[in-house]
Amino acid sequence: MKYSSDIEVNRFAEDLLLSVKQMKARKAERRTFVIPVVETRNKTGLTQEKFAQLLGVSVKTLAAWEQGVRTPSGAARTLLKIAEKYPKIVKEAASA
């Protein structure tokens, strides 16, 4: 049985491969990716410190994402998507 997160990861991987192919063919397409980082963190009920630690980033980096000063990397975006969709599981993981 495949979980929806598996499907999302597969879609992400396919999109990434397509992007690489487009770049090689010089047909790259620019997309804006917006993640409501503050809302996602609030859904988990975690502090900035705990959420940053869970994501493996500094509090300063997390704050920059929340303020829109910086954009999360690919791996961080994937973790944020998971946190957005499964906040209870993320909170459990943080307390384990």
TrEMBL record:
Molecular function (GO) terms listed?
DNA binding
Matching InterPro entries? Cro/C1-type_HTH, HTH-type_reg/antitoxin, Lambda_DNA-bd_dom_sf
Q: Provide the alphabetized UniProt keywords.
A: DNA-binding, Transcription, Transcription regulation
**Pfam families xref list:** HTH_3
The upper taxonomy is: Bacteria, Pseudomonadati, Pseudomonadota, Betaproteobacteria, Burkholderiales
Q: What is this protein called?
A: Helix-turn-helix domain-containing protein
Q: What are the residue boundaries of the HTH cro/C1-type domain, all occurrences included?
A: 37-93
Which domain of life does the UniProt lineage start with? Bacteria
